[in-house]
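Morning F.,

Quick status update on the modeling queue. The single chain you submitted on Monday has been processed. Sequence for confirmation:
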Amino acid sequence: MKRKQPGWLARTFCQASGKLRRFVINRLRPKYVVEALGKRSGECVRCGACCRLLFKCPFLKFDKAGLAECAIYRRRPINCRIFPLDARDIRERDMVAGAASICGYALNSPAVAATKETAPAEAAD
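Structure tokens below.
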């Protein structure tokens, strides 16, 4: 059964509460953030959907190939650095990009967790 897309008000509320949720989690539950990021694999495919949650970020730019890039990437806010934390974040992203657009991140992968547990510690630079 195909899931019905939520209306404008529901999407706005969901995206606003998601931004607030990520901010609060980052400030009050840093261990959760570390654990969640440890379960994440893949990389950003530069679609720009996460930069258009609730509103278009003023620092979102697109290169000649149409790929998203951040004008302040090295100084971007913490919410941008930790996105996506969990499946709720991917669902919010899909509201903007559409489910046909695939996020480059995979979450809660047992294979990723096992690989990270058995991988040797990297040497400090």
